[in-house]
Amino acid sequence: xxxxxxxxxxxxxxxxxxxxxxxxxxxxxxxxxxxxxxxxxxxxxxxxxxxxxxxxxxxxxxxxxxxxxxxxxxxxxxxxxxxxxxxxxxxxxxxxxxxxxxxxxxxxxxxxxxxxx
Amino acid sequence: xxxxxxxxxxxxxxxxxxxxxxxxxxxxxxxxxxxxxxxxxxxxxxxxxxxxxxxxxxxxxxxxxxxxxxxxxxxxxxxxxxxxxxxxxxxxxxxxxxxxxxxxxxxxxxxxxxxx
Lengths: 117, 116
Prior knowledge:
heterodimer; A: about 120 residues; mainly beta; four-stranded antiparallel β-sheet; B: about 120 residues; seven-stranded mixed β-sheet; 11 strands; globular
């Protein structure tokens, strides 16, 4: 079974609107971390935001927020006031506290976001 | 700038050859990770080192090997290259090892390998 599922291969959003990128995860660990990364067309991987499994509040970083619903095992990324520069691939990732991951991140297949002017 | 340096940026080589990719982690980071990104497989974890020792192995082929040196830089060696090895290879670093769920990985800009 996939550990990280991103069901939206591609999404479009109008500039200045908000957009939600979906991510669901699968783990039996109680302690884990969820991450979102952005990969522009230039190729680099940029860390955006982190949510810990024990964090009671949703993480926020500027225009990025993470809608964490533990019972549903979902960790959706919300980008507010989209900008043209937000056009990129977005990856959801998880690190499990114990078990086989040993600290590495497991990535989903990504969502390609296109922001329309 | 993530602070992780990867060289070279691009590498073009022929099937059957051997190449070495190099990575310098962020200052202070002890863990180095290697990932392979291809169109069909996505981002695949290859191997992790922590302070010079191998800590975890992912989907790394036997033709591939890696090491982390005392100065913490790491090298990924790819041998008997095949067309299917063409991909973007990322190095990433973080401060800690297992259990540190909150430490993000900081990625280098990658080495794009093309095998012809």
